[in-house]
Automatic annotation (TrEMBL):
InterPro entries registered for this protein in UniProt: CheY-like_superfamily (IPR011006), OmpR/PhoB-type_DNA-bd (IPR001867), Sig_transdc_resp-reg_receiver (IPR001789), WalR-like (IPR039420), WH-like_DNA-bd_sf (IPR036388)
Pfam families: Response_reg, Trans_reg_C
Name of protein: Response regulator transcription factor
DNA-binding region as annotated in the record: 130-229
Length: 229
């Protein structure tokens, strides 16, 4: 099953479009640039996307009309990125179905964080109906918050459980230490690698004890962690 996160970038300014695509690639997602509303609609008809970054001032069909058409079709999350940053524009966009609004000029790290936040909220809402996450012989019950490995229940701390849940929710995604820390601890990451390392190491040891013949979490050096396929 293809777990690639695809993001459609609808922005007519070539430099800004390239910058947004670069931000997306850095988070290990796959961007698809589009430079007009019409082009965006063509891509949306051909491919399923996990998120749309949408400028409002576009040639041909404007962003408001694109947003309306996206909402007619379904619930793909949409982040508006626009220089039209008046309060009324923001409120109208959010009430029309946008999930977030980022004003130009934007901060690169903020855009990255907001993309992750919207994708996470959307993923959580999608898996809310699921009772159990599975990967290899790990069975994680979201209702009872219990974890079984190789048929044996293992006791995890709250942090370990949250780390495992996050990794299993997107098993193909590489989570940086900053991703893990900010998602699990709910605080700004200041480069304290040791905190994340210790918790991931403890989690790995518990998984390995339940099944010594399997490896579940792999380290992607210089990038972070993900579930081992």
């Amino acid at each position: 099953m293809d777990e690639t996160i695809r993001i459609l970038v609808v922005e007519d300014d070539d430099d800004i479009n390239k910058l947004l695509c670069k931000i997306i690639k850095k988070s290990n997602y796959k961007p698809q640039p589009a430079y007009s509303g019409t082009e965006a609609l063509i891509y949306l008809e051909k491919q399923k996307y996990d998120l749309v970054l949408l400028d409002l001032m576009l040639p041909g069909m404007n962003g408001e009309k694109i947003l309306a058409k996206i909402r007619e079709q379904g619930t793909i999350p949409v982040i508006i990125i626009s220089a039209k940053n008046e309060k009324e524009t923001k409120i109208h966009s959010l009430r029309s179905g946008a999930d977030d609004f980022i004003s130009k000029p934007f901060d690169v790290d903020e855009v990255s964080a907001r993309i992750d936040s919207v994708l996470r909220r959307y993923k959580e809402s999608n898996i809310a109906h699921k009772k159990v996450l599975t990967h290899k012989d790990i069975h994680l019950d979201l209702e009872t918050k219990t974890v079984h490995v190789n048929g044996e229940e293992i006791a995890l701390t709250v942090r370990e459980y949250k780390i495992l849940t996050l990794l299993m929710t997107s098993p193909k995604k590489i989570f940086s230490k900053a991703n893990l820390f900010e998602s699990v601890w709910g605080e700004i990451y200041h480069g304290d690698d040791n905190t994340v390392n210790v918790h991931v190491s403890n989690l790995r040891n518990k998984l390995a004890k339940a099944n010594p013949n399997e490896e579940y979490i792999e380290t992607i050096w210089g990038m972070g962690y993900r579930m081992k396929s």
